[in-house]
């Protein structure tokens, strides 16, 4: 069980209580008190993004350069309801030619071609054929750049069958 969200919530409650005590017990100018309240309120908004990553919400970051495809959930676009659509992809990043032990969820912008490629990869994966994915930077760009995210339609994702493991000789 991960108690980090509870601990952080209690810490923010303590900071809020201390701020209340400071505002009531001091004769600081009103603009200082309002400024402190504004800073604490903004810190809650910034912490929300951290909470979402910590609690396992899909990342809007770029995919790793190489990864193993684990699962896919598709939310197709619906103009009537105003849904833009998304592809939620669970992967294990590959580092040093080995999959990392913990999977990660990513949110990708919906594209029909990408939906087709990932759908084929999941079908093969269900048949027992592991699927390896890779990201390819568009011309003139870099996948790992902080200016690009996974929703960038120019980032190309390629999926291929994983090589058969070679067994040692007897």
Provide the residue-averaged pLDDT: 82
The biggest beta sheet is recorded as: 6 strands, antiparallel
Number of helices: 3
Poorly predicted segments: 143-151
Radius of gyration over all CA atoms, rounded: 23 Å
Which series of helices and strands comes N to C? HHEEEEHEE
Give helix % range.
Answer: 25-40%
Count of DSSP strands: 6
Distance N to C terminus: 43 Å
What is the 3D shape?
Answer: elongated
Strand content: 15-25%
Structural class: alpha+beta
Can you characterise this structure?
The protein is of the alpha+beta class. It has helices spanning 4-25, 30-54, 112-126, and strands at residues 66-75, 86-95, 98-99, 104-109, 131-136, 156-161. Strands 1, 2, 3, 4, 5 and 6 form a six-stranded antiparallel sheet that branches.
What layout of secondary structure does this protein have?
Layout lengths: L3 H22 L4 H25 L11 E10 L10 E10 L2 E2 L4 E6 L2 H15 L4 E6 L19 E6 L9
Antiparallel strand pairs: 1-2, 1-5, 2-3, 2-4, 5-6
Properties at a glance:
6 strands; 170 residues; alpha+beta; 6-stranded antiparallel β-sheet
Brief characterization of the structure:
The chain is 36% helix and 24% strand.
């Amino acid at each position: 069980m991960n108690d980090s969200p509870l601990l952080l919530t209690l810490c923010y409650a303590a900071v809020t209580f201390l701020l209340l005590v400071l505002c009531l017990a001091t004769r600081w100018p009103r603009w200082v008190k309002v400024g402190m309240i504004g800073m604490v309120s903004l810190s809650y908004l910034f912490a929300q993004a951290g909470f979402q990553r910590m609690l396992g919400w899909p990342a809007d970051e770029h995919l790793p350069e190489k990864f193993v495809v684990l699962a896919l959930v598709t939310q197709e676009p619906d103009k009537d309801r105003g849904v833009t659509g998304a592809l939620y992809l669970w992967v294990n990043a590959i580092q040093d030619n080995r999959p990392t032990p913990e999977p990660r969820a990513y949110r990708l912008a919906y594209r029909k071609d990408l939906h087709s490629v990932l759908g084929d990869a999941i079908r093969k994966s269900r048949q027992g054929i592991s699927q390896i994915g890779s990201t390819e930077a568009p011309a003139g760009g870099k996948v790992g750049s902080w200016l690009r995210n996974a929703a960038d339609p120019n980032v190309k994702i390629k999926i291929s069958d994983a090589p058969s493991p070679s067994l040692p000789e007897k």
